[in-house]
Design brief:
Keywords: Hydrolase, Signal. This protein is mainly β and 318 residues long. The protein has a domain of 222 residues: TolB, C-terminal domain (Neuraminidase). It has one helix and 24 strands. The strands form six sheets. Strands 1-24-23-22 form a four-stranded antiparallel β-sheet. Strands 2-3-4-5 form a four-stranded antiparallel β-sheet, with no helix packed on it. A four-stranded antiparallel β-sheet has the order 6-7-8-9, with no helix packed on it. The longest helix is centred in the first third of the chain and has 18 residues. The chain is globular and about 55 Å long. The protein starts with a helix and ends in a 7-residue tail after the last strand.
């Protein structure tokens, strides 16, 4: 089958799936996004496309799976955290989420959350009790914690870019109080945020390998993604450009492939070679992605107004 035929078939299948679900079809796939037919067979079956779950949101972000495979994701504009269950149902898990953005579950089942209402990192327990983990840096408001990753041993990394928010009422005049946009380390059992990346324009997506050896961080402003070695004390070394593409949120699969977001989902193998481009049937950029489901083989994709799922052959590592 020719590449152009594959693109047409993928678009037709996506539209048919939406009609079968009795959901108004969203715009067709951006024609500039093409799958790479020589490299996708190990990731997903030929003809598989993202399927719309719902388009009722204000601005979705921060999807994370719990131990069972349910996905929790944020709708920052409406100040909510939603859950997409194993049964395929959507429910509001938390109202008044402190304008939650990026999230990550720790080993105890707490949802570690970048909360932008007052520029904090918080922990939300399974019974929805909120504990503030990091409230400021040296007495100054953080820019706006955006994405967060927790290692197996309990250390935490988070990005702190500056995006002015209309709901900020506590900061006074607009602008950063800190001297830059950085990535921070918070060691297990502490509340001190230690800067470990200070040379990015606008750091955003953060994710690490399950063996605790490497951290991937996207420079959203610099339009590049970098790979770092995680040292025993949590500091970073051996900065290496991984992809000539920035990202909002990102994730990894069990083959070591890295999933970057923007115009669709772009997949790179562990060596930094682009191996797949997943078009998403919306005119909006993809904001984040994770693996969901009982077997962690469902790719869960967030965009500002909509969320999608896609059946995969690989599995996620969260």
């Amino acid at each position: 089958m020719k590449l152009t035929q594959k693109i047409f078939l993928a678009s037709a299948l996506s539209l048919g799936a939406l009609i079968a679900m009795k959901i108004n079809p969203t715009p067709v796939v951006n024609p500039r996004l093409v799958m790479l037919p020589d490299s996708t067979s190990d990731l997903f079956a030929d003809g598989t496309v993202p399927v719309l779950v719902s388009d009722q949101f204000g601005f979705t972000e921060g999807p994370s799976p719990d131990k069972k495979g349910n996905v929790y994701f944020t709708d920052q504009n409406n100040d909510k955290i939603w859950m997409y269950g194993l049964d395929g149902k959507l429910t509001v898990w938390m109202d008044s989420s402190r304008r939650a953005n990026g999230t990550y579950f720790d080993k105890k089942g707490n949802l570690i959350t970048a909360a932008e209402l007052r520029n904090e990192i918080i922990s939300i327990s399974p019974d929805k009790k909120i504990t503030t983990l990091v409230k400021d840096i040296g007495g100054k408001f953080m820019n706006g914690p955006n994405d967060v990753f927790v290692t197996e041993k309990g250390d935490m990394y988070f990005s702190d870019p500056y995006f002015q928010r209309s709901f900020w009422k506590h900061r006074g005049a607009p602008g950063m109080q800190l001297d830059g946009q950085k990535v921070y380390l918070v060691r297990k059992g502490t509340s001190e945020a230690i800067p470990v990346i200070t040379d990015m324009r606008v750091p955003n997506g953060v994710v690490g390998t399950p063996d605790g050896k490497y951290l991937y961080v996207a420079d959203y402003g610099g339009r590049k993604t970098f790979k770092y070695t995680i040292e025993k004390d949590g500091t970073l070394s051996n900065k290496t450009q991984f992809a000539d593409l920035g990202s909002d949120g990102m994730t990894l699969d069990n083959k070591g492939n890295v999933y970057l977001t923007g115009r669709g989902v772009t997949v790179y193998n562990k060596d930094g070679k682009r191996i797949a481009q997943i078009p998403v049937p919306t005119q909006q950029n993809v904001t984040n992605v994770c693996f969901a489901g009982k077997n962690r083989d469902i790719l869960f994709i967030t965009t500002p107004k909509s969320v999608f799922t896609m059946q995969m052959k690989v599995k996620g590592i969260e």
